[in-house]
Write the structure tokens for this entry.
Amino acid sequence: MELINNASLKSYTTFGVEAACDHLYRIEDVEELKLAVQYLDQPLILGGGSNILPLGSIHRNVLRVELKGIQIINDSDQPLVKIAAGEIWHEVVLWAIANNLGGIENLSLIPGTVGAAPMQNIGAYGVELANVFHSLEAIEIGSGQLVTFSNEECRFGYRESVFKTELRNKFVIINVTLRLSRQHQVDISYGAIQQTLNDWHIEKPTIRDVSKAVIHIRQSKLPDPAEIGNAGSFFKNPIISSSQFQLLKQEYPYMPGYPAGDHVKVPAGWLIEQAGWKGKRIGNVGCYEKQALVLVNLGNAKGEEVWSFAQEIIESVRIKFNVQLTPEVNLWS
Ligand code: FAD
Ligand code: NAP
């Protein structure tokens, strides 16, 4: 374990906003993590910092989970693979492809760690973690007790889980077990993947082809956090009633919407763009010119500046469409 007093979180989050932190612990060992969560008061858990916006200084103990290891625990057509929480998600995707294991290729290039993936049930291009998730082990903060959660117990939803709601800041996830597959069924239902594969004249895509297409699309559309600070989609796509969607459609015939049970999912990026924010800049904060759902740190933005920019967007979308946007990013204070 390494303790850094008076740390700066700037290089530990992809938004790259300056934020002092009283005590930052980097932990590579499960037993040390158990002790830390028993003896440190209400710690905050940090992975790759790609979905966090610190608002000012953090007067808390921050535990950065750096546990490593990947293990196939029953080799079969659908092996279970147990992965330590500190592994980098995208490296695991590449490892799976190299081992001919399918199921997570659409989730290529999502930044962050494996331990954070269940938090918001990471998803992209029609696939979400819940599709391949078997179970996870977590340590309860306070007691240090080890608890196993099944897929059902995680209560996964659209960019949601029990760890983001009722059990927020109550557990540290230490490993995740996925059920991957050697019998591949690729999902290329999202238009952009299909289009890219068509452009490449690939008729029967392999999991590697799909991963390459996803990487290609993402690199052409999303800002690289190493160059421009951001945390991906700042807001969740709102899910609205079908009746509200029909009403809005009368006024905005080109408004996109996708079925979500008996509701409709509306792309937040479209709403933000229509409200006039795409490419707009206030001080050090901007709305990314290629994807309005992404807010960017254009210089030395403070977390509070990003948040006040986000609140202006929320308000203007509410006024224009009567739709409430909620942040997907975790606000730390
Ligand atoms: P962090 O940002 O460190 O933490 C996020 C939350 O999880 C915090 O509340 C933290 O306390 C908690 N947490 C972290 N580790 C643990 C743990 N071990 N135990 C318990 N709680 C923990 N997300 C998607 O779903 N789909 C995408 O396509 C996508 N694309 C992105 C693209 C870009 C360019 C960026 C910057 C972000 C994107 N994201 C996407 C968001 C982000 O990558 C994911 O949410 C990712 O899972 C966050 O991982 P992390 O390790 O960085 O978590
Ligand atoms: P996009 O293709 O421009 O589409 C805009 C939105 O419409 C997406 O958010 C997506 O919802 C929805 N959508 C598009 N096609 C759909 C379909 N066939 N069925 C259902 N919903 C559909 O989106 P993008 O911004 O380039 O992102 C591409 C993918 O990467 C999306 O899945 C997105 O979630 C993911 N992504 C996530 C983050 C993040 O930080 N969370 C950042 C970048 C990209 P969904 O978001 O529900 O898929």
